[in-house]
Amino acid sequence: MKWKKQDIEQYVKAKEYIDTAIIPLVPFSMGSTDDELTSLTYQNEVMDLFVDRVEREYKGRIFRLPSYTYTKSSNLENEMERLNSFYEEICKQPFKYVFYLTFDSKWKKFEKGLGGHLLWVPVMKDGDLNSEETQKLLVDQMEQVTDLIQTYWVE
């Protein structure tokens, strides 16, 4: 389920079955180099594809919340505090599991301070989203992430 009116209406009727929230963490910067701007945009597109596939795989169990966007130059300690406020808000619903999905390895340093679970996935800096190689890589990484999510569900 996604952050769309139609999905929210379904969620309200079946929220006891939807126990997992997933939030993409997406860096943003317009003041960077052209290469970095291209890379960040590419990573955002990959994140959308990636999270959509995970959500589709577990439709009716996972709820995809809007992406949490932060500036690339942000102090991640401050962002962690903001994310924990989001976590408290999310926990007002009956979610048992909250996952943050990121391609930004800098979040690993703050993992222990986050409410919920951080899933860091390495990603290519640039590429062709429609290429067979990129699609295969996405599927492989998605399978690894879904396997990891499942380990939390069986605890």
What's the structural blueprint in terms of helices and strands?
Layout: H1 5-14, E1 20-28, H2 34-57, E2 62-64, E3 68-71, H3 76-90, E4 97-102, E5 117-120, H4 132-153
Parallel strand pairs: 1-2, 1-3, 1-4, 4-5
Helix pairs in contact: 2-4
The arrangement of helices and strands along the chain is HEHEEHEEH
* Dominant shape: globular
- The overall pLDDT, averaged over residues, is 91
Structural domain tally: 1
Main β-sheet description: 5 strands, parallel
Summing up helix and strand content along with how strands pair, one would put the structural category as alpha/beta
InterPro entries: DUF2487
Organism: Salinibacillus kushneri
Protein name: DUF2487 domain-containing protein
Pfam families: DUF2487
How is this structure best described in words?
- The chain has four helices and five strands; from the N terminus they run H-E-H-E-E-H-E-E-H.
- With 155 residues, it is of the alpha/beta class.
- It has one domain (5-153): Rossmann fold, CATH 3.40.50.
- Strands 1, 2, 3, 4 and 5 form a five-stranded parallel sheet that branches.
- Helix 2 (34-57) packs across helix 4.
Task: Give a nutshell description of this structure.
By secondary structure, the chain is an alpha/beta fold. It has four helices and five strands.
Features:
five-stranded parallel β-sheet, alpha/beta, Rossmann fold, DUF2487 domain-containing protein, DUF2487, 155 residues
